[in-house]
Amino acid sequence: MRWLRKLSTAIILIAVFGGMYYLISLQYPFHWNIVPFDYLKLYLMGMLITLQISIFSILLSFVIGVLGGIARVSKNETLRDLTGVYVTIFRNIPLLVIILLVYYGIGTIFDFPRFWAAVIALSTFEGAYIVEIIRGGIQSIPKAQFETADALGLSESQKFFDIILPQAFRNALPSLTGQFISLIKDSSLASVIAIEELTQRGNEVATMALASFESYITVALMYFTLTYVLSYASKIIERRFAIP
Fold it and tell me: What is the spatial distance between Cα 202 and Cα 39, in angstroms, rounded to a whole number?
């Protein structure tokens, strides 16, 4: 029975994590009375910055991904080649290096605030992956759809934005959700340029309270909450737009 299987899984997980916690507590005195409660405001401020970085990066990377995905299947060979170069470069350089390059390179030249340097770095990095997700979604559409649109005399913009892309988004939604979840987690790397997002706040609390384990467990749970909410919302949207 389904409920029995879920109960068994829950019992196993509780036993495993409970055992791990007990073994660690024999060597490490936890101070849950201090963390996170005495520093809750700092954690919430960090989460707010993480949300802001993530939302702006998701929007910008999605725009990059859609435009790049269309370019990848374009009849224009130059557009295809340029987009292919962009995807190849950004998918083969670590995000941490891109953040440092944007902040200490472009950011220094144009005097970018570190917040926007992180957004630009995240967007361009994640956008390269979204380009391929959108390309795959477009190419999953039967060729008959393209031929029908051409037979109706629709322009290229009408064909893509009215017929092809809505279907491509539906097909690509699970992969897009996974990429956006990765983006939220990757935003933690913004701490390397001293942005006071969630991970950086966790570092500060760990130092001030001398409670590293408690601080990073709290940070992990807060990231889990953010990504789980996004994943759950995606499942609802998938069911809403599923083909009967």
Answer: 10
Q: What is the pTM of this model?
A: 0.87
Q: What DSSP assignment string belongs to 87-124? A: HHHHTSS-HHHHHHHIIIIIHHHHT--HHHHHHHHHHH
Place of tokens 């893509």: 160
How much is the pLDDT for 241?
66
Q: What is the pLDDT of residues 73-103, one digit of tens each?
A: 888 889 999 999 999 999 999 999 999 999 9
DSSP class of 239: H
Give the pLDDT score at 218: 93
Block residue for tokens 């060979």: 77
The conformational region for residue 197 under phi > 0 = left, psi -120 to 50 = alpha, else beta, is beta
Residue with tokens 């940070």: 219
**Is the torsion defined by CA of 164, 168, 170, 176 positive or negative?**
negative
Q: Which two tokens stand for residue 114?
A: 């570190």
